[in-house]
Amino acid sequence: MGALDEALRQVRARPWRRVVLERPVPVDALPTPALLIDADAFERNLARMSSSLVARGKGMRPHAKTHKCPLIALRQLEQGAVGICAAKVSEAAVLIGAGVDRVLVTSPVADAERAGLLVALSRACVALDVVVDSQFGLDLLRAAVAPGDRLGVLVDVDVAMGRTGTRELETILALAETARATPGLLFRGIQHYAGQIMHLDGHAERRARSHALWEVVAKFVDALTARGLAPEVVTGGGTGTYDIDVEIPCVTDLQVGSYLFMDHQYRVVGGAGGPVFDDFELALQVVVTAISQPRKGLITVDGGYKAFAVDAGPPVPLDGSRFEYRFAGDEHGVLIGQGEAELPRLGERIRFVAPHCDPTVNLYDWYWVCRDGEAREIWPIAARGCSWWGARRS
């Protein structure tokens, strides 16, 4: 068996279907640390984003890098999403294997194996697109496709972020023209993502910066159109600018992700209505247990670096309790009392808001899906990590 076949076999062997629990499990009885979805808040977030974008005539192309869960991606398609984004080819393989049939891979590929895998995956779904930002990457795709294939190509445009994409108009035009002229490839449009502004403090500042960037992108769109290459898709944006980028005429759809769950990092950047970004509810929680009290005024919990992403600071308690969390190693955190605030008791479960939802999700194998204080279902996080060799070999 070749490497490509083995890679596909491994990721497609991962369980992804929901597990309905025979008996609901109270949140206070969950094994911890546990990743919990408040199902009602989740559904309200899902509906609110969908209706908001539809009302402004824009499509929703949610990013699965946030949730890494085919069940959620399928739910987003049911809610009218025009497609689902995947950050890498291996995530796309998991999604497509579970029946997600409209996927955009938002990072370019730079090796023949991944290019070949993309072509193979494109033959198993309604629409598979991938971004390109170099002639090198496009040539890999051209070598992999056959005339009967239909692999979509979007040119990845960078204005200021400096991560992926091209800023050169001639490169954009050349890539679009070559893709259109290649049997087996379809030129679909352009992608522009400005991740550097998603967490800027203040809605007005984000709006000004985002509009300035899209003005540059609009000139690229005009140049493509003048060359007879009018983009069918102009996609980008994110949760932090979801209500801003809908104002841009050339944008067709938004790559929102964190809106489903929200996290502390997003809550503090401010929304259109004030200093707290509360357009969407906190639907994702991490539950830990108080397991030790080495001294007065301090409680140790069973959630540390392996329970929370660490790039956005320490987690904060969901209920607003006045104690400070400090990381205390891989498996532990320490809660420190502030003033007269009462600390949790030994054995008590404590719920936290994730500092940054995407990398926190990537630490867990499944979600406990809860209603009315009880876990009712388990949803596998099937695209977690997505190392080709992460599954058990047989």
Looking at this protein, list some descriptive labels:
Lyase, Ornithine Decarboxylase, Chain A, domain 1, globular, alpha/beta, 10-stranded mixed beta sheet, 10 helices, TIM Barrel, 394 residues, 8-stranded parallel beta sheet
> What is the rounded Rg?
22 Å
Mean pLDDT: 94
| Continuous helix count | 10
Task: Please give the domain count.
Answer: 2
N/C terminus separation: 12 Å
User: Based on helices, strands and strand pairing, what is the structural class?
Assistant: alpha/beta
Quaternary form: single chain
Question: What does it look like?
Answer:
- By secondary structure, the chain is an alpha/beta fold.
- The protein folds into two domains: 112 residues, D-serine dehydratase-like domain (Lyase, Ornithine Decarboxylase, Chain A, domain 1, Beta Barrel); 225 residues, Alanine racemase (TIM Barrel), CATH 3.20.20.10.
- Helices cover 28% and strands 23% of the residues.
- α5 crosses α6.
- It is globular and about 70 Å long.
- The chain starts with a helix and ends in a 14-residue tail after the last strand.
- The C terminus is likely disordered.
Question: Quick summary of this structure?
Answer:
With 394 residues, this protein is an alpha/beta fold. The chain has helices spanning 3-12, 39-55, 70-78, 89-97, 112-122, 135-144, 169-181, 203-226, 264-267, 357-361, and strands at 19-26, 34-38, 59-60, 84-86, 102-105, 127-132, 151-156, 185-192, 233-236, 253-254, 284-292, 298-301, 316-317, 323-327, 333-337, 349-353, 366-371, 374-380.
